[in-house]
């Protein structure tokens, strides 16, 4: 057991990280995973977590935090009838399967590999955000199976490897096929549930017994971070949302795109810098 002073510093850093993540999540209107992972990576580095497991721990802990937040969001959207339940029912196997595959990959992947994956997807997301056009369409309705099943599995894999709830990826998929952003966001909350629950158990299994993990960790999940971050992000998010109302949709999209570019460059620099 480390000294109390080190645990207090760890808790303080996580509380600050949660505030930043919540503020940015509220500002950019996303679940926070894309923000939490790079923030966790920095904080875990400051307390001396082994580089070999730092990215794994960041991704797994982010997925654990997404479980209650995505479930709460999904139930709220469900009451308003905005969720595409047919799509979610069709993905009850596909998306969790992808999340489990992601955990299996993570159990064998190096820290560098996970950072490269995160950076590559972040750049793709940034491209869409910065250069997005309403006219971009691939069809007027969602594709049938097996294409739809494969997309769900792919969203589960990529989100599980990034430690995100799948919101950005699913929003892109649904909007490219003519669905409204309101329905896409509502449905993405359900996708987050399908990703985060199997992802949580998968990352516990993937990291079980690994050396170099900080105190109070189960595999690649750090429970100190989980229980500190959830309330802090929920407090901070409304302030970010208030700030968002002072900006246009285009400014928010561009701002988030630039943020993702900076995160991607940070991870690239950590590997080759």
UniProtKB/TrEMBL annotation:
Its localization reads:
Cell membrane; Membrane
Q: Pfam families from the entry?
A: TauE
**Chief localisation class:** membrane
Q: Which GO terms describe its cellular component?
A: plasma membrane
Q: Identify the stretch annotated as signal peptide in this record.
A: none
Segments traversing the membrane: 12-41, 53-75, 87-106, 113-131, 151-173, 185-208, 220-240, 252-272
Q: How does it sit in the membrane?
A: Multi-pass membrane protein
User: Is the keyword Cell membrane assigned to this protein?
Assistant: yes
Q: Which UniProt keywords apply?
A: Cell membrane, Membrane, Transmembrane, Transmembrane helix
- Hey, which family's this protein in? Belongs to the 4-toluene sulfonate uptake permease (TSUP) (TC 2.A.102) family.
Question: What is the designated name of this protein?
Answer: Probable membrane transporter protein
Traced from the root, the source organism's taxonomic lineage reads: Bacteria, Pseudomonadati, Pseudomonadota, Alphaproteobacteria, Hyphomicrobiales
């Amino acid at each position: 057991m480390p000294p109390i002073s080190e645990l207090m510093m760890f808790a303080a850093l996580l509380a600050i990280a949660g505030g930043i993540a919540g503020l940015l999540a509220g500002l950019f209107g996303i679940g926070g995973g894309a923000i939490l992972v790079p923030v966790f990576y920095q904080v875990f580095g400051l307390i001396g977590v082994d580089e070999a497991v730092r990215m794994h721990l960041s991704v797994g802990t982010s997925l654990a935090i997404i479980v209650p937040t995505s479930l709460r969001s999904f139930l709220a959207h469900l009451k308003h009838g905005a969720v595409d339940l047919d799509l979610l029912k069709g993905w009850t196997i596909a998306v969790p399967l992808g999340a489990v595959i992601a955990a299996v990959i993570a159990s064998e992947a190096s820290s560098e590999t996970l950072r490269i994956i995160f950076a590559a997807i972040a750049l793709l997301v940034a491209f869409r955000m910065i250069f997005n056009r309403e006219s971009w369409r691939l069809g007027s309705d969602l594709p049938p199976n097996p294409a739809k099943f494969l997309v769900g599995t792919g969203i589960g894999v990529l989100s599980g490897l990034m430690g995100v709830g799948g919101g950005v990826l699913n929003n892109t998929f649904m909007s490219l096929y003519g669905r409204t952003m309101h329905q896409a966001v509502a449905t993405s909350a359900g996708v987050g549930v399908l990703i985060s629950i199997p992802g949580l158990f998968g990352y516990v299994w993937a990291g079980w017994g690994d050396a170099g993990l900080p105190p109070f960790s189960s595999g690649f999940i750090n429970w100190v971070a989980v229980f500190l971050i959830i309330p802090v992000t929920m407090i901070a998010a409304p302030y970010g949302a208030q700030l968002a109302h002072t900006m246009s949709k285009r400014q928010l999209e561009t701002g988030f795109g630039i943020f993702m570019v900076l995160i991607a460059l940070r991870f690239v620099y950590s590997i080759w810098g």
